[in-house]
Every structure is written in structure tokens, then in C-alpha cells.
Amino acid sequence: MSSSQNNQSTIYISSSLLISLIQIPILSLTIVLAIAYILLLLIRPAFRHNKLNWFTINVCLTSTCISTYFLAINIQLVLSISSSLSIRLQFFLQYMGISQVTYSHCAIACSRLLTVVYANKRIFQSNVCICCCVICGWILAVVLTMPLLFQDILIFYSNSLATNFWSYYYIVITLFLPLVIVTACNTRTLLFIRSSTRRIHAMGADGQGNQNRDGLLIKTMVGNFIVFLGGWSPPMIIQLFNKTNYIPVSLNIYFQTVAVLTLFQSVVLLIVTNQPVRTFLKQIVVGQPRVVNANRTQIKRQTIIAPH
């Protein structure tokens, strides 16, 4: 019996080490890309003045925070360093970080609802509204996961009724509540955009391009949000209900890898779908053709003017 338990513990340790070795480069690359993207949006005035980019910065910042936490945990595991943080604090940081990412998408959905549906209200177009949406997302994530700091974590490894309650509680606040908020806000916004597009098309007026851009932005963020939920739901449910021993090792490795890949995918998708940023980066790689063309035009003008 002890031999069987030793084999199981050895397999668990080796699989945990393999998961860490897979996750470390993915998390590191995610952090580098997210920080570089944030700095680019902050340094360039044209990007900084775009209000939507502040929500992008918020998503990248929350992704950086949760990636940094898991990177530190994985490095400690690989180097066999014991953590100085209590188990309560580790659970809190983990689920608070995941909640920060999900509620950052809620902030985007609520802001787009207010700015699109209630476009005639000046307050909803202001920077104050953006700050309120972002701050509310952070506060919700912290407050709703706060009970982790004041309860016995061993409760998740028992079979009591309290175990089921708190397990379902954290699944609801981390996954299902953000899903409901994002779905409700974006559905209302998309329905409004569709009705406005039909009305504008019937009147033959210009402005359909803005409506299409709003719709594309919402669909992109919804897709990003769904991918994140799909990637993090399995490992969270397995951990909260203490079912790791019932999951095959290969499947557990797959779930853990997909979870961190969704963070990387989220940052990459934000960069790729931002057309001004994509154009700017393309100009840097190609060699800024616009500047070259402008210089050639100026030389031609000077040549024509010179004989006079």
C-alpha cells in the first residue's frame, strides 16, 4: 500500500515539474509582450489618447499580474524553494488574479454599453467613466475573493457541505458572474448597433463604418473572454473540488498548459487586432515607407522650384 502511495506521489511530483517547465517560458513571454505593449500604448501620444486603449492596458496589466504570480510559483517549484506565503494568501492571490482578468473584460463590456447605447450622455464619454469602470472591476475582484483570507483552506479537502458551498461560490464569482455580465452588456450593445446600422442604411447616411468597428471590437473581446474562460475553467474546477487524483496525468498537464496559453493568446490577440498598433509595428519592421515617400515628394518639389 505504501509502495503504491510512493509511486503516486512520485508521478505527481514529476508531472508538476513538467508542468512548471512548460509554463515558465510561456508565462515569461506573456509578461514580456504585455509589458512591451503597455509601454508602447503609454509612450505614443496617438495611442495614449485613444480611450479604448486604456481598457487594453487594463487587460494586459491583469494578465501580467496573474502571469507573474504563476511564474514565481513555478520557479519556486523547479528550484525546490519553499514559499514564504501562507496557503491562504496563495489561494487568494491566485483566484484574485484570475478574477482580475475576467472582471477587466466586464469593465470593457460595461463601458461599451454606456458609450454606444447612451452616446448622448456626455458623462459616459468622459475619462471619469473609464476610470470608474476599471476601478470597479478591480474592487469587485478583490472584495469577492476576500473570504479566502479568512477561512480554513483545508475545507476544500474535506467532504463537508461547506466545501461544496465555497467551491461553488468561487466558481460563480470567478467564472459565471463575469460571464453573465459580459454576455448581458455585449448582447444589449450588439442589438443596439444592429438596429442603428439598419436605420443608418435606410436613411442613406454615413457612419456605418463606426458601427462596424464597434461591433468588431465587441466580438473580438467576447472571443478573447470565452477562450480565457474555456482555458481556466477545467483546472479551477479540478482544484476547487479536489479531483486531481481522479484526472489522468497527461490530461492534467494538458489543462494546465492550455490555461497559461490562453493568457499568451489574449495578449497576442489584443496586439494583432489593434490596427493602428499593427500598422505602426509594420512600418518599423518594413522601414517606415511613409517617411521615405514623404522625403521623395519633398525632393521633387525642391527640384521643380529650384530653376525659378
UniProtKB/TrEMBL annotation:
**How does the record classify its membrane topology?**
Multi-pass membrane protein
Q: Mark the transmembrane ranges.
A: 12-40, 52-72, 92-115, 127-148, 168-193, 221-241, 253-272
Q: Where does this protein reside within or beyond the cell?
A: Membrane
Domain G-protein coupled receptors family 1 profile: from-to ranges = 34-273
InterPro entries to which the protein is assigned, alphabetical:
GPCR_opsins (IPR050125), GPCR_Rhodpsn_7TM (IPR017452)
What are the annotated GO cellular component locations? membrane
Q: Its principal location?
A: membrane
Q: Which keywords annotate this record?
A: G-protein coupled receptor, Membrane, Receptor, Transducer, Transmembrane, Transmembrane helix
List GO molecular-function terms, semicolon-separated.
Answer: G protein-coupled receptor activity
Q: What is this protein called?
A: G-protein coupled receptors family 1 profile domain-containing protein
